[in-house]
Fold:
Amino acid sequence: MKILIASIWMYPFPGSVSSHIRALKVMLERLSHSVDVVFPDYPECQDTSLIKFYEKARHSLADKVELKLRSTKYDVISCHDVMSFLACLFLNVNAPQLLTVHGYMSDDALAAKLVAENSAEEKYLRYCERIAYQNAPAIIAVDANIRDYIKSIAGIKKIIVLKSFVDMELFKPMERDEGFKKKLGIPDNRFVILCPRRLTAKNGINYLLEAFRILLDRNVKAYLVIAGDGEERKNLINMAESLGLTGHYLMLGSVNHSIMPMFYAIADVVCIPSVVIGNMSADTPISALEGMMCGKVVVASDIGGIKDIIKNGINGILVKQRDPYAIADGIMRVLRDEGLRHYLERNAYATALQGHSSIFAAKIYLKIFERLLGEN
Structure:
């Protein structure tokens, strides 16, 4: 089967959508299918206005898709956001399209204050979402909250929930590389806390910094590694300095996805301190699943899609969101109790392997592709 994956987000690029696309592409190719990925010409799309960016990205992607279709006859097109689906819809392509929804386009824009509530821009985004959802022949939502969000906007019921997944060939339990730790400048005999998240408000990194200060005040010998970049970087660096964390943490910026397993391998615990902003529900972070697939304990906020994959005290630790003391207590519980840590590590790996592997997800995608081809 010849498959075209379309997204308005740059690929490859740090972030959950890019990770999802990469894992899906790799596994479909291992199953002997041909897969191409297409995304807009990013330098041409940059704009201070979110709406203008979306429009430029949609038009640029439409041009790229049209060019691809001239040279290759694709059986199906797998779209991974509203705007990429609309680009294909307005091209009136023959190949059936599947829409995978990874987030809450309008609500995310409101939460990030990129559009104002009840503004023409918000109405435009909701209109785009409604048109896409109502015209998509098949929709995948990456968690139940997103499914309910789609229903509330478009009033449709036939939505497949396929929980987030990771490439189990790339992310797997590995031996700790002490040489890699030394290369990063992490002192010996320190517990390593890894936070593999973008530096954006909804990811709650500020609460983790406060929690880390609490851990140091409790004489916990720990070192914090933050892998990710974003608009909050400067604020978070200033906050870390004001908390006196200099010499106790590392803010790496964007990290190539292919080497992230090395960071998981040196981690004693992975922390996902996500928060709910406004009416936006928290998604299921792929980084949490990556950590679990690497056999690591994840300490995460008790919200949204995170609760679907982590069961407190069984395969991870859930803590109250926006509560630095709860985060610190959760991390301490794991670091101080080696027996509990190993128990949670085993169960975390089993959970990820059984329900969140890329081979499982690829087979679901293929079944939907085959159904769409039959209907087409």
In short: The mean pLDDT is 93. The CA atoms of residues 190 and 200 lie 27 Å apart. The chain has two domains: 2-165+357-375, 178-355.
